[in-house]
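assembly run, all chains below
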Amino acid sequence: MTGLRDRQKADRERRILDAAVRMFRARGYRAVRLDELADRADVSVGTVYNYYQTKGDILIATVALEVEEVIGIGSAIVADPPRGVETALLALIFEYYDHSLNYLSKEMWRTAMALSIEAPDTRNGQHYSALDRKLCGQVIELVARLKERGEVRDDIDPEPFGELIFNNLNMMFIEFVKDDSMTLEALRCAVAAQMRPLAAMIATEDA
Amino acid sequence: MTGLRDRQKADRERRILDAAVRMFRARGYRAVRLDELADRADVSVGTVYNYYQTKGDILIATVALEVEEVIGIGSAIVADPPRGVETALLALIFEYYDHSLNYLSKEMWRTAMALSIEAPDTRNGQHYSALDRKLCGQVIELVARLKERGEVRDDIDPEPFGELIFNNLNMMFIEFVKDDSMTLEALRCAVAAQMRPLAAMIATEDA
DNA sequence: CTGCAAAAATGAACGCACTCAACTTTTTTC
DNA sequence: GAAAAAAGTTGAGTGCGTTCATTTTTGCAG
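ok done. output:
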């Protein structure tokens, strides 16, 4: 049985994260002051810092929620990808992209990615990096799956190619969030143009 | 003829940048306070802000210097690359990597890259992005050059493949600066492993 | 040289993320 | 159930990047 203290702790942490998601999204990460956030979560500023190391840490926690969700959906695609190398790769990639703005703004993504580079040693910085690796692993898995099914050439090693594809889609996502005027549609086109020749290259002749 | 005012302005800007390069490198970007930097450059804090928009802006300016230098050296390699697709690509990539820590620390790179994502609208943020595009262009140019020489297959379009390679080396560089314990040698190995299968794939049969 | 306008330098003041010594609440002990 | 210990909360205080009203310097016309 969990004691009162543990329940209160869990509740406070949840309240802080709730307030953060709502406020960051509504008014932007930068514009939200920490004392406001604390007010909204019904705790003091000091308490926020008992649960999260920095303001950025709170943001990364909210982003992590989103990424976990995307990974969940992605695993279904990996388990049974559509036919065709290009189609399958784009299905997974577009799934990532299409969900990216469901709960998060571009500003939030920008800040979170910046933080994961700048402060890779914080708890949530590492958490974010771990999620990134998981996403990468999913792409590798997909390539491996397509190879099993005989759609990807037998002499292709899924690991370096999967990483190549992941690094590429990640960089293109960064370009996307850097430019507020770029649409999801434009991102899709750009990555498709990028992937098409590569997909053709690793696909078996008769695909 | 340049008036006294213009000369003094140029001199002050140079002094600030000089002090910044020296101090950031010696003591770390974060650890350098702006009033110290201003002291060292023999100007007031306010004056620093007449020349640069933010502290990060100063950092990006110092990083830009380094990148410009690397681009200069790279163009020689592109003009006359060594034989062999893999060899040529790695020559250019390693040139980038090997110079990266000449004047800048990993912390400076981390911060600069983070800033270029987080604040892409600042003057120097755009400057940095432009340099990035230039680097990417150089890789594309190299692929095109190798194609001309018949080392890269004729049905390969240099643009998407060049971008693919650039995005990849950029992401691997990010991983490198994120991990203080990772050596240049380890980075080289990682990127070589990544490039080998791709190089083999786009090279002409008889290479 | 003098007076005037434009440009630039200055540093005290401000805002906001973050800290920490004092206080409150929960748990444990007997 | 009271008292001691442990764990957690609190918000005024601190540090540092940034701003802006004031002062100083430069350029220019008469």
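The interface with chain A takes residues 110-111, 113-118, 120, 129, 156-157, 160-161, 163-164, 167-168, 170-172, 174, 177-179, 193-194, 196-198, 201-202 of chain B (CB under 8 Å).

The mean pLDDT of chain B is 94.

not gonna interpret more than that til we talk
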